[in-house]
Design a protein that fits this description.
Number of helices: 1
Low-confidence stretches: 114-155
Largest sheet: 5 strands, mixed, barrel
Mean pLDDT: 78
Strand content: 35-45%
Shape: globular
Number of strands: 7
Distance between the termini: 33 Å
């Protein structure tokens, strides 16, 4: 059987300050609530925002360091894995899905704080998302470019 892939990438804003806890073992764990918002156009042509809320967990020294930097409104890029757990509440089995972060890139700062838009990484890989998602009204997204067949000829015209 082939090996699977469990990878999540999100760019969004923190909906509340991070929650850092120390476990009895001495290991740090931080929980984040991340909002990702997509702009959609309905059949009537009106633009609306749709927000999804994600639960994110960060472990260890990274959690401790990020808890001193992150705050409600911070724009961050997260790479991680989906994890599902179960628990019982009132005799009923329930499930919870969260993201365990492997890499977090700071992508700006808090909204309206005038912080630099230069991305800063807290994980093992470099790179960034490039800018911050500002507050206020955003213009509608640009239309998708038409598919270009590089001149319409055969395979000989493809530049690679």
């Amino acid at each position: 059987m082939a090996e699977g892939l469990n990878k999540v990438m999100l760019l969004g804003n923190l909906g509340q300050d991070p929650e850092l806890k120390m476990l009895p073992s001495g290991q740090a764990v931080m929980r984040l609530r991340l909002a990702t918002t997509e702009r959609r156009q309905d059949k009537a042509g009106n633009w609306t925002d749709h927000t999804e809320w994600h639960s994110v967990t960060v472990w260890g020294k990274r959690a401790e360091a990020l808890s001193r930097i992150l705050a409600k409104g911070s724009t961050i890029f997260i790479e991680g894995k989906l994890r599902t757990s179960s628990y019982e509440k009132n005799g009923e089995k329930r499930y919870s899905t969260e993201i365990t972060a492997d890499n977090i890139i700071l992508s700006g700062g808090r909204r309206g704080d005038g912080a630099s838009d230069a991305p800063r990484s807290s994980g093992g890989s470099s790179g960034g998302s490039g800018g911050s998602q500002g507050g206020g009204s955003r213009p509608p997204p640009a239309a998708e470019p038409a598919f270009d067949t590089f001149g319409g000829g055969g395979d000989d015209d493809i530049p690679f």
